[in-house]
């Protein structure tokens, strides 16, 4: 059995679960398509805790995502395959997706870049973020829009990049300086806003 056959077999193994357990399809469809909004809201919430360490974590995670996404696009230029619902028959396709190169999985890169970074910086309960990223990766196979190897490639790229960023970037002076400049500007804006608010109350 060659690699492509293994890829298809693993895809069938996961995707056919949707046919065997259709009551789970709405859940996995939601995870595959809308969990990205939860991630975005979480990133904003963590950023606006106004904790410097949290902001360094978010900044590094964002850099990791941009780098991993770029590497993913380069990898996709060297190897490409359409989504399973395009290439295979009887796929349990549960969400709308245009025909395109599905290697590697962009959703997987996004979630693993951030979730692995959260775990590296915080450890402890942050393992739940990694479990969420795994769930998103599985859901993309479940709904029929990615092969397991698309997801695996996204995991490996994100894991390597996120680990590298974690080990190197927080120590760079430019990261500390960027955060300090941002916080200085933020404090100035908040101060001006409070002054205007106090003036309006006095009148």
TrEMBL record:
Subcellular location: Cell membrane
Main location: membrane
A GO molecular-function annotation: undecaprenyl-diphosphatase activity
Gene Ontology CC annotations of this record: plasma membrane
UniProt key word Hydrolase: yes
InterPro entries linked to this entry: PAP2/HPO, PAP2/HPO_sf, UPP_Pase
Keywords of the record: Cell membrane, Hydrolase, Membrane, Transmembrane, Transmembrane helix
UniProt-listed Pfam families: PAP2 (PF01569)
Residues spanning the membrane: 27-49, 56-82, 102-121, 128-145, 151-169
SMART domains reported in the protein's UniProt record: acidPPc
Membrane-protein topology: Multi-pass membrane protein
Domain named Phosphatidic acid phosphatase type 2/haloperoxidase: residues: 57-166
Domain of life of the native organism: Bacteria
Listed PANTHER family: DECAPRENYLPHOSPHORYL-5-PHOSPHORIBOSE PHOSPHATASE RV3807C-RELATED (PTHR14969:SF62), SPHINGOSINE-1-PHOSPHATE PHOSPHOHYDROLASE (PTHR14969)
Name of this chain's protein: Undecaprenyl-diphosphatase
Biological source species: Bacillus subtilis
């Amino acid at each position: 059995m060659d690699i492509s056959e293994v890829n298809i077999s693993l895809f069938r193994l996961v995707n056919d679960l949707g046919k065997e357990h259709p009551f789970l399809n709405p859940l996995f469809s939601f995870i595959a398509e809308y969990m990205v909004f939860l991630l975005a809201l979480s990133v904003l919430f963590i950023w606006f805790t106004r904790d410097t360490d949290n902001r360094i974590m978010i900044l590094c995670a964002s850099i990791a995502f941009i780098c991993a996404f770029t590497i993913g696009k380069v990898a996709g230029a060297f190897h490409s395959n359409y989504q399973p619902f395009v290439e295979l028959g009887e796929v349990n396709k549960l969400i709308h997706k245009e025909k395109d190169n599905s290697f590697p999985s962009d959703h997987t890169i996004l979630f693993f870049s951030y979730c692995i970074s959260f775990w590296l910086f915080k450890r402890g309960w942050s393992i739940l973020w990694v479990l969420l990223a795994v769930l998103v990766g599985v859901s993309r196979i479940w709904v029929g829009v990615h092969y397991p190897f698309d997801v695996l490639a996204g995991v490996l790229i994100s894991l390597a990049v996120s680990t590298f960023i974690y080990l190197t970037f927080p120590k760079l002076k430019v990261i500390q300086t960027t955060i300090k400049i941002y916080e200085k500007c933020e404090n100035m804006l908040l101060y001006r806003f409070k002054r205007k608010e106090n003036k309006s109350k006095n009148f």
